[in-house]
């Protein structure tokens, strides 16, 4: 079985652990994680991510974007930097990511900052359209708001709702638009009943796997940095929720992931 971790902050994982990139990549490969997408959060990280990816172009892909959690730090100039970076990007740039909307932190919901979040999200969706790239979307407590943007701004390659934690009805609306659902460590927690039920019912061709490493730890590893190889824990939880065979699940999700973020 081969796996594609469709959402990692591999640069932050390396900084956090201090381990060589070669070791991190090898650890992932040993667990069958053949490919990983590294997503950006700040403009100053773009070059670091590009350099990391260039070391292992068969295994590492990247997305460039401006994360809503850092909306206070982003400037209009960063959008120009992003556009220029996408215009000059190599073949391993396969997404505009991580972008989206954040409504779980009250400090980011003042009128001014919410308008800024919406402005940056909209601008980056148009960049995804301009460069014909899929998106990887942060949508924390903002599914309804994100949906309205995605319905209004159609993209040629759609993308993923990352780290989905919501109901079947919310997920199905995104799937009906053409988007896939990012399945992460949330489903390894029995208490996440609503999300587990949603993932069990959605069509398999609408799902991809992700870790969000070093964030979103899987059950049993709370307090530790998450790692791409722990995608296996999420995969095992997914197999318990689904009726298909493990081989079929792995094959279809590998196909889904490559179709979207591979090259």
From TrEMBL:
It comes from the Bacteria. PROSITE patterns: TATD_1, TATD_3. The keyword Transmembrane does not apply. The lineage of its organism: Bacteria, Pseudomonadati, Pseudomonadota, Gammaproteobacteria, Pasteurellales. Belongs to the metallo-dependent hydrolases superfamily. TatD-type hydrolase family. The keyword ATP-binding does not apply. This is Deoxyribonuclease. A divalent metal cation 2 binds at residues 138, 162. GO terms for cellular component: cytosol. Pfam families: TatD_DNase (PF01026). Gene3D superfamilies: Metal-dependent hydrolases. GO terms for molecular function: hydrolase activity, acting on ester bonds; metal ion binding. A divalent metal cation 1 binds at residues 7, 9, 98, 212. It comes from Rodentibacter rarus.
